From TrEMBL:
Organism placement in taxonomy: Bacteria, Pseudomonadati, Pseudomonadota, Gammaproteobacteria, Vibrionales
Organism whose genome encodes this protein: Vibrio cholerae 2740-80
Protein name: DUF2442 domain-containing protein
Length: 138
C-alpha cells in the first residue's frame, strides 16, 4: 500500500514528499486549495500525516495515490539504515512541535513512521527498551 512517510512544507501550497516505495519529489497542491473544501482551510501548514499515509487538513484528506500523481520527482533507493541519533533528533523535534501546537498527532506520526519502517522489535532493541510492555508504557 502506497504511503507518504515524510513531508516537509516548502512554500505556499508546495510540499516535499517521500513515499514508502522511495519516490521523492515536490507536490504543488494549489489546484486543490483553490476549490472547496480545501479553499476553506485557513492554515495550509496545519496538516497531519494519517496512519494510512494520507495528508489531512481538518478532516479533508488527500490520499497518497493522489499526491503521488501530482508529485514531480524521482525514484530513490529505499534506504533502511537505522541511525539512533537521527531517530532521537526527529522524535525530540516532533515532541517539541507536538507540545507547542497542542497536536499529539505530530509525535504519534513520527514514532509510527519508525515502527512501520523497522518493526517493533528492531525499534525496541535499538532504543534499549527491555520489553514491548515497557515500550508501550514509555
Amino acid at each position: 500500500m502506497l504511503k507518504v512517510i515524510d513531508v516537509d512544507f516548502v512554500s505556499d501550497h508546495t510540499l516535499e514528499l517521500t513515499f514508502n516505495d522511495g519516490y521523492q519529489g515536490y507536490a504543488d497542491l494549489s489546484v486543490y486549495f483553490k476549490k472547496t473544501p480545501f479553499s476553506e482551510i485557513k492554515d495550509f501548514k496545519r496538516f497531519s500525516l494519517t496512519r494510512d499515509g494520507s495528508l489531512n487538513w481538518d478532516g479533508n484528506e488527500l490520499t497518497a495515490a493522489t499526491l503521488r500523481d501530482i508529485t514531480k520527482g524521482s525514484q530513490k533507493s529505499v534506504e533502511l539504515s537505522f541511525n539512533v541519533q537521527e531517530m532521537e533528533a526527529v522524535i525530540k523535534q516532533a515532541s517539541w512541535e507536538s507540545m507547542m501546537e497542542g497536536r499529539p498527532d505530530i509525535l504519534q506520526a513520527a514514532i509510527r513512521s519508525y515502527v512501520e519502517q523497522f518493526g517493533h522489535g528492531q525499534v525496541i532493541a535499538k532504543a534499549g527498551i527491555k520489553s514491548r510492555t515497557s515500550a508501550y508504557r514509555s
